[in-house]
């Protein structure tokens, strides 16, 4: 059974840093692209970032470009999102999702990041 | 960036009746491989999103056949042939043609 489990979401002060993790099980992690998507509670979905199976191709939303870095460790079956220079508007639930044929077929349950002083 | 526009924003439906949601993109979503990179997702209350349709019209594994997707280029439609109570939630379209990927604002389907 495919499972994605996010972790690392906490309360952090503006300007701070955080690293989210997404542990993947139940499939060959190293053969799939992966995404991060976020959602302010009660609001819509916003795509954040993606990475190819080798970790050599990445993409970012304009709102996080230069502040967030997506990466992966295929040996550990884990996806990461390094978040720097955090702002209040980064407060959201962050989901990781697996990419198949350009669609996100499996999603984690999300981890809540709160940026506040 | 490609802008995705969904309508309606709210969709009250009587059980057993059909429903449709429109999604329009600001640029064509047709890839050189012939596929339209448009997906539909449903986020049920309190749950993570789940994929319904990919490449505009391909039903994802396990998705009931009452859900169908159509369209090409910039105009797409998600249809539910007979709405059931379990279909309530927010429906999103998303373009996966180019980064940044973008979602529509969502359509909230509720049961009358």
Describe this structure in words.
The complex is a heterodimer of chains A (117) and B (112). Chain A is mainly beta. Chain A has strands spanning 3-7, 11-12, 18-25, 33-39, 45-51, 58-60, 68-73, 78-83, 92-100, 103-107, 111-115. The relative contact order of chain A is 0.31. The mean pLDDT of chain A is 97. Chain B is mainly β and 112 residues long. In chain B, 0% of the residues lie in helices and 48% in strands. In chain B, β9 (89-95) and β10 form a beta hairpin. Chain B is globular. The mean pLDDT of chain B is 97. The chains are: A mainly beta (117), B mainly beta (112). Chain A binds chain B through residues 35, 37, 44-47, 50, 59-62, 95, 97, 100-105, 107-110, and chain B through 1, 35, 37, 39, 41, 43, 48-51, 54-55, 58, 60-61, 90, 92, 94, 96-97, 99-106.
Query: Helix count of chain B?
Result: 0
Shape of chain B: globular
Structural class of chain B: mainly beta
Q: What is the makeup of the main sheet of chain A?
A: 7 strands, mixed
Estimate the mean pLDDT confidence of chain A.
97
**Helix content class of chain B:** under 10%
Please give the number of β-strands of chain B.
Answer: 11
Tell me which oligomeric state these chains represent.
heterodimer
* C-alpha Rg of chain A (nearest Å): 13 Å
The dominant shape of chain A is: globular
Keywords:
heterodimer; A: 117 residues; mainly beta; seven-stranded mixed β-sheet; four-stranded antiparallel β-sheet; 54% strand; B: 112 residues
Quick description:
The complex is a heterodimer of chains A (117) and B (112). Chain A is 0% helix and 54% strand. Chain A is built from no helices and eleven strands.
What's the SSE blueprint?
The complex is a heterodimer of chains A (117) and B (112).
Chain A: E1 3-7, E2 11-12, E3 18-25, E4 33-39, E5 45-51, E6 58-60, E7 68-73, E8 78-83, E9 92-100, E10 103-107, E11 111-115
Parallel strand pairs in A: 2-11
Antiparallel strand pairs in A: 1-3, 3-8, 4-5, 4-9, 5-6, 7-8, 9-10, 9-11
Chain B: E1 4-7, E2 10-13, E3 19-25, E4 38-43, E5 50-54, E6 58-59, E7 67-72, E8 75-80, E9 89-95, E10 102-103, E11 107-111
Parallel strand pairs in B: 2-11
Antiparallel strand pairs in B: 1-3, 3-8, 4-5, 4-9, 5-6, 7-8, 9-10, 9-11
């Amino acid at each position: 059974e495919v499972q994605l489990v996010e972790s690392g979401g906490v309360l952090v002060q503006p300007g701070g840093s955080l690293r989210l993790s997404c542990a993947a099980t139940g499939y060959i992690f190293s053969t799939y692209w992966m995404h991060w998507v976020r959602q302010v509670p009660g609001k819509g979905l916003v795509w954040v970032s993606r990475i190819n199976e080798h970790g050599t191709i990445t993409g970012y939303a304009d709102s996080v470009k230069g502040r967030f870095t997506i990466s992966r460790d295929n040996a550990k079956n884990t996806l990461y999102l390094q978040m720097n220079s955090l702002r209040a508007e980064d407060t959201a639930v962050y989901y990781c999702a697996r990419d198949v044929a350009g669609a996100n077929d499996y999603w984690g349950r999300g981890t809540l990041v709160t940026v506040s002083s | 960036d490609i802008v995705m526009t969904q309508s309606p924003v709210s969709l009250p439906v009587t059980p057993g009746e059909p429903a449709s949601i429109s999604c329009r993109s600001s640029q064509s979503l047709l890839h050189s491989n012939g596929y339209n990179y448009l997906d539909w997702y449903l986020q049920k209350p309190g749950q993570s999103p789940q994929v319904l349709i990919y490449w505009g019209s391909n039903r994802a594994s396990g998705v009931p056949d009452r859900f169908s997707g159509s369209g090409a280029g910039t105009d797409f439609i998600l249809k539910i042939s007979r709405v059931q109570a379990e279909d309530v939630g927010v429906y999103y379209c998303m373009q996966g043609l180019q980064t940044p990927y973008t979602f529509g604002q969502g359509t909230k389907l509720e049961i009358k």
